[in-house]
Amino acid sequence: MRIALLADIHGNLVALETVLQELAREPIDQFICLGDVAALGPQPHEVIERLRRLDCPVVLGNTDAWLLGSKASDTETLRIITSWCVEQLTPEDRSYLQSFVPRLELPLDEGRSLLCYHGSPRSFDDVIAAVTPDAAIEEMLAGYSATVMVGGHTHIQMIRRYRDAHLVNVGSIGLPGVNAGSPELPDNHHVRWSEYGVLSIEQGRLSIDLRRTPLNLAALLEACRNSTMPCQEWWIQKWDSSNECGS
Fold first, then answer.
1. I need a surface site. Which of 20, 71, 151, 160 has the fewest CB within 10 A?
2. With helix as H, strand as E and coil as C, how does 109-160 read?
């Protein structure tokens, strides 16, 4: 069994297609998306269309909820981009977003299981990071157990042992340079890659593969500049060192 774990695409179709093309070269039994699909990127509608064709379960992320009417970020730039993303969505897109689930549990083998969420099983706004105290994690995981617990939200890859479970963050496909919730950890500007994960079970052996795959920076920036997304400088400077515009 091989499960591809995708998270935090954030309206970045170039990055999503790059990852899917890479995964097409190997056997994958199941795709799971861990949320934050369309907001804050230049191609929100196109990403939703592509993900719908993938026909995989999707967990609701905090910015997915923004697109459905929840209060967006307190940051003006993010509110402006979110409002634009909402305008790009069709009724079918909104219906698709409403189908996302708060968490997803899957059996693996030999009594092992996988629990998927965005921030934590308790809330898509929760942060589970390498530096999060065990006491805080205990509160966020209260009532839930699994062999592997996997999420996104922070945009920072992680594998952490907690009691008998592995806590995993597969990073971000579409905005890996943006620290989305761990103030103790820095942003990583001017990235050139996408991040995702693959969970494998073969002959009883469980493995977790965290990946970074390089992106075509020119295609990435062209997709942004060809869109009507506002505040493009905020997005471009996350990728391109020649655009030090600030955020």
1. 71
2. CCCCEEEECCCCCCCCCCCCCCCCCHHHHHHHCCCCCCCEEEECCCCCCEEE
